[in-house]
Design a protein that fits this description.
Length: about 400
C-alpha cells in the first residue's frame, strides 16, 4: 500500500495541468465554505451578544411564577431579600457581576401628551458595565447621582418629541393599588437591537423606582458572566444552589426566542450551502478526473497488460484523487483562514437586521468545526468523483484501452 501511495503521489505531480485545475476547484470550494461558515457564525455570535449586553444579561433570576404571571400582578412577585440573592449569585464561579431590576409599567408625559411605557429601575454603574451594546443617540448614560434622571428609548423620544434635558412626568400604580407620580429629567436617548424595545422602554435609577412603587424589593436579578460559552454550566450550578428557595432561573437563550429562530434559520441556510458547494465540487472535480483518467487509458491498459489486477488499478486511481482532495482541501483551509483574517481586519458593513434601525460591522470568524467540515467536504468530493470513472476504466477491455493510447 505504501508503494501504491508513492506511485499515486508521483502520478499527481506528473499530470500537472489537470492536477492544477482539480486543486483550484477544491481549494475554491473549501475556502468558500470557511468564509461562509465564519460569516454566519459571527452573525449568530453578534446577535446573541447584542441581546445579552443591551437588556437581558446572561442569566436572570426571579420569584417562581414571575415570568408567567408577573405582568398581571407584579407586586406579588417582589423578592424580599434581593441583596442576599445577589451575594449568592456573585459567589458562583464565572460570574462577573449581578444587578437588581425593578420592572413597572405606566404613562410617561411631556406636558402635552402621554405615552404608555415599560419601565426598568436599574443600578446605573452596574448596568453601564452590562449594557455595552446600547448605543447613545443623544445625551449620556445614567449616573449614580441621577436620582431623578431617566434614559429613554429612541422610539419613546420620537413619540413624545423629547431630548436630553427635557422634564417628564411618570405616572405608575404603586404597591397596594395607589397611584404615584414623579417628575424626572431626560439625561439620554438610547438605541438597542430591537425597535420594539426602544419604542416602549425607559430606565430610571433603582432607588427612584423603589420610591415610586413604594417598595424596597426587586423583581429580577440580572447576572453578567465572564464568558458567554459558560452560560449553561453556570446556570446549572445556580439552579442547584437556589433549589427550594422559591426562585426560577432563565438563561438569555430562554428569554430571547428570536435568537433561537435566527440560529435555526442560519444553520439551515448554511446546511443548504454545504450541499450546493459539495454538488458543485463533485461536478467540477468529476469533469477533470474523468478527462484525466480516460486520457490515460493507454497507460492503464498497459499496466493491466503486464499483469496488474483491476483492483490494484482501482485503488491507484482512487488514491490519486484522494491525494488531490487532501492537498486541495489543505490549500483551501490555508486560503480560507488567511482571507477570513484579512477581511476581518477591514470588516463588512452590514445593514440593520429585521426589527432594528442600527447597522453593524460584521467579521468572519475562524471556527474549528467549520474548518474540519470544509476539509472533509473537499476530500469527499475528490474521493466520490473518482469512484465511477475508476470503476469504468477497470471494466474496459485491455485491447480497447491500448487502442485508445495509440
Amino acid at each position: 500500500m505504501l508503494g501504491l501511495l508513492k506511485l499515486a503521489i508521483r502520478n499527481v505531480f506528473r499530470q500537472r495541468g489537470r492536477s492544477a485545475v482539480t486543486l483550484a476547484s477544491i481549494t475554491f470550494g473549501v475556502a468558500a465554505l470557511i468564509l461562509a461558515g465564519g460569516f454566519i457564525e459571527d452573525t449568530i455570535v453578534e446577535t446573541g451578544e447584542s441581546m445579552i449586553r443591551s437588556s437581558t444579561g446572561h442569566v436572570q433570576v426571579s420569584r417562581v411564577g414571575y415570568w408567567q404571571y408577573g405582568a398581571q400582578s407584579p407586586e406579588k412577585y417582589l423578592m424580599e431579600a434581593p441583596e442576599k440573592l445577589r451575594a449568592d449569585l456573585l459567589a458562583a464561579p464565572g460570574v462577573e457581576d449581578a444587578m437588581l431590576r425593578l420592572n413597572f409599567s405606566g404613562l410617561l408625559g411631556n406636558g402635552r401628551t402621554d405615552w404608555s411605557i415599560m419601565g426598568e429601575g436599574v443600578e446605573p454603574l452596574r448596568e453601564n458595565r452590562l449594557s455595552s451594546y446600547i448605543t447613545l443617540t443623544a445625551g449620556r448614560r445614567l449616573a449614580s447621582a441621577d436620582f431623578f434622571g431617566m434614559m429613554i428609548g429612541q422610539g419613546v423620544a420620537k413619540a413624545l418629541k423629547l431630548k436630553p434635558g427635557d422634564p417628564v412626568t411618570l405616572l405608575v400604580s404603586a404597591t397596594g393599588g395607589a397611584t404615584n407620580l414623579l417628575e424626572f429629567k431626560v439625561v439620554g436617548v438610547f438605541q438597542t437591537f430591537s425597535k420594539d424595545y426602544d419604542a416602549r422602554v425607559v430606565r430610571i435609577p433603582l432607588a427612584a423606582a423603589q420610591e415610586l412603587l413604594a417598595t424596597a424589593g426587586a423583581h429580577t436579578a440580572v447576572v453578567l458572566l465572564k464568558n458567554t460559552a459558560e452560560t449553561e454550566a453556570v446556570a446549572k450550578t445556580m439552579r442547584a444552589k437556589l433549589s427550594g428557595q422559591g426562585f426560577e432561573l432563565k438563561t438569555w437563550v430562554d428569554l430571547n426566542s428570536f435568537y433561537t429562530q435566527t440560529v435555526t434559520l442560519y444553520q439551515q441556510q448554511f446546511g443548504f450551502l454545504v450541499v450546493v458547494i459539495l454538488a458543485m465540487l463533485l461536478m467540477s472535480v468529476s469533469n477533470t478526473v474523468n478527462m484525466g483518467i480516460f486520457e490515460r487509458a493507454g497507460e492503464f491498459g498497459t499496466m493491466r497488460a503486464i499483469g496488474d489486477r483491476s483492483a490494484h488499478l482501482f485503488r491507484l486511481i482512487v488514491l490519486e484523487s484522494l491525494w488531490l482532495g487532501v492537498l486541495g482541501a489543505t490549500l483551501g483551509v490555508v486560503v480560507g483562514v488567511v482571507l477570513a483574517k484579512a477581511i476581518s481586519q477591514v470588516g463588512i458593513p452590514m445593514p440593520p437586521p429585521p426589527n432594528a434601525d442600527q447597522g453593524y460591522i460584521s467579521h468572519i470568524l475562524v471556527v474549528p468545526q467549520v474548518i474540519v467540515m470544509a476539509f472533509a467536504v473537499g476530500v469527499m468530493a475528490a474521493l466520490f468523483a473518482s469512484l465511477r470513472p475508476a470503476y469504468l476504466m477497470c471494466q474496459k477491455p485491455i485491447a480497447e484501452a491500448l487502442r485508445e493510447g495509440v
